[in-house]
């Protein structure tokens, strides 16, 4: 009865909720409990249930808490005891977990949708969470802007990104040539936010302290608010979000973002309109605000919401990846030196032209190895069944079911020898042996799911790879770094999220770069 008691206390302490509302909510909770106790019969119940409630228990609060605390351990346990497919009690209902090899059979299935599950996970129908709605629900404008504009413009963005990396590092890491400590995750979030904003918003807002602050705040607050909502039954979330502090904070963040972006968009539209009236060619900008306008082709969309969504995706994943790879490199002096020599060789020949990024093959291998050991989540290729769908093993997934593919293939010794050991040369050797395409950082497979897999893989991964390589090039040539004494960074899970150590520091000092980037 613990969950019911907590449920009643939350409702009764919320301002403005009448007794009638409490009674209605209790009735909805009763329906929720009934559905838990009496599940519908369908094929997926052939799969064993892992982390499920006890037969005599009506509630799953302990199971949800365990999932949030140790999703990786539970999934690994399920793969060992229940086989390659099982049901799992998560913090947001029961979902199907599949072993890595299932990814090949799912990757191109149009009836299994990633956008829908992302929208549901982050409550896209609730005020404050609109960026998840615009970016997830088959948003053609967003995907056109990324695939047709951002990806094609990558080589032209290298120089602006490099310049912004210099500015951001000088500000956040300074030119201090004495050893000093930074909180790595936070500094990477600031630096990646500034680089991404240069591409998404252009020079007008990329260094605006209010924009950088509020988009970073939204990124963190969205995760907190999303988790707070999952405590409540689905049917009540549209009501209780009004009274949850983290959800209120999220709405405030979004409103501030809109106040910053909308005037810039309006100014550009007026400028273009006036130039057309004068018979002049409208000015074009090399940034995502411009690309979204082009991709819209007159269709209605909210440009400020789009900017928040792109910033959030880039800031969270990019800062986490860069944090982890720097931790991975701290005890690899030879690898760091080899990477520096590669950067010097490539940049001396090419500067930041189209082929530069591709030629940083060792760096590409290091990034992929870091992602292999610690992907962004312990299960990826997440899908929502838009209609009844038969899985490769013949089991029917009924409409509305949710599934995920475990990232465990990344740690499979039969695929990657000594999988627990960080080997920055691993994927470089694979490319040298002939696996040129499959061993690249942006490539996906059932054993490399860091960017998803198939047609619904991350469309922004090519930009992410460029951004990380440019930032890492500046860091390696301009700074020495090491772990503080008695520090051993430890990644952690929070539900499915797999995060680099958020608290560990890094000792850094400015070094004399061999070449100017």
TrEMBL record:
Keywords of the record, alphabetical order, are: Heme, Iron, Metal-binding, Monooxygenase, Oxidoreductase
- Which is a Pfam family this sequence falls into? p450
Q: Which organism is it from?
A: Akanthomyces muscarius
User: Which cofactor does the UniProt annotation name?
Assistant: heme
- Molecular function (Gene Ontology), one example: iron ion binding
Q: Does the keyword Iron apply?
A: yes
Keyword Heme carried by entry? yes
Stored InterPro entries? Cyt_P450, Cyt_P450_E_grp-IV, Cyt_P450_sf
* Listed name of the protein: Cytochrome P450
Q: Which CDD domains match?
A: CYP503A1-like (cd11041)
- The entry marks the following residues as binding heme, namely 458
SUPFAM superfamilies reported in the protein's UniProt record: Cytochrome P450 (SSF48264)
Q: Which family does it belong to?
A: Belongs to the cytochrome P450 family.
Source lineage: Eukaryota, Fungi, Dikarya, Ascomycota, Pezizomycotina
């Amino acid at each position: 009865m613990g969950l019911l008691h907590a449920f009643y206390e939350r409702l009764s302490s919320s301002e403005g909720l009448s007794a009638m509302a409490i009674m209605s909510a209790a009735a909805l909770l009763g329906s929720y409990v009934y559905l838990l106790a009496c599940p519908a019969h369908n094929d997926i119940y052939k799969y064993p249930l892992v982390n499920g409630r006890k037969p005599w228990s009506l509630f799953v609060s302990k199971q949800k808490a365990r999932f949030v605390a140790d999703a990786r351990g539970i999934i690994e346990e399920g793969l060992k005891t229940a086989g390659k497919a099982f049901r799992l009690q998560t913090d947001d209902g029961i979902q199907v977990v599949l072993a890595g090899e299932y990814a090949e059979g799912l990757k191109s299935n149009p009836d299994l949708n990633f956008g829908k599950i992302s929208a549901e996970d982050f409550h896209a129908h609730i005020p404050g969470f609109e960026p998840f709605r615009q970016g997830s629900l088959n948003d053609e404008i967003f995907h056109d802007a990324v695939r047709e504009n951002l990806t094609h413009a990558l080589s032209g963005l290298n120089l602006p990104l490099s310049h912004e990396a210099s500015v951001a590092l000088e500000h956040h890491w300074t030119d201090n040539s004495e050893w000093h400590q930074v909180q790595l995750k936070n500094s990477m979030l600031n630096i990646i936010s500034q680089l991404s904003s240069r591409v998404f918003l252009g020079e007008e807002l990329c260094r605006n302290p209010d924009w950088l602050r509020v988009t970073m705040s939204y990124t963190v607050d969205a995760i907190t608010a999303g988790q707070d909502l999952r405590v409540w039954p689905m049917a009540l979330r549209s009501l209780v979000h009004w009274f949850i502090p983290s959800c209120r904070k999220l709405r405030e963040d979004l409103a501030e973002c809109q106040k910053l972006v909308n005037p810039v968009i309006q100014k550009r539209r007026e400028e273009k309109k006036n130039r057309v009236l004068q018979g002049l060619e409208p000015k074009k900008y090399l940034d995502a605000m411009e690309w979204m306008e082009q991709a819209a082709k007159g269709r209605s969309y909210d440009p400020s919401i789009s900017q928040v969504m792109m910033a959030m995706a880039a800031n969270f994943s990019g800062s986490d990846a860069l944090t982890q790879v720097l931790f991975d490199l701290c005890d690899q002096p030879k690898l760091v030196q080899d990477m520096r020599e590669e950067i010097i060789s490539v940049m001396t020949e090419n500067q930041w032209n189209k082929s530069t990024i591709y030629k940083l093959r060792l760096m590409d291998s290091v990034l992929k190895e870091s992602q292999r050991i610690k992907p962004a989540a312990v299960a990826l290729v997440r899908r929502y069944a838009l209609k009844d769908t038969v899985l490769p093993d013949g089991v029917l997934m009924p409409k509305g079911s949710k599934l995920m593919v475990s990232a465990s293939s990344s740690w499979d010794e039969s695929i990657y020898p000594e999988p627990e050991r960080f080997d920055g040369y691993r994927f470089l050797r694979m490319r040298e042996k002939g696996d040129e395409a499959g061993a690249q950082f942006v490539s996906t497979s059932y054993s490399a799911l860091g960017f998803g897999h198939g047609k619904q893989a991350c469309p922004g991964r090519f930009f992410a790879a460029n951004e990380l390589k440019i930032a890492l090039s500046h860091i390696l040539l301009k700074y020495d770094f090491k772990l503080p004494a008695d520090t051993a960074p430890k990644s952690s899970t929070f539900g499915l999220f797999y995060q680099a150590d958020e608290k560990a520091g890094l000792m850094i000092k400015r070094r004399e770069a061999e070449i100017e980037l």
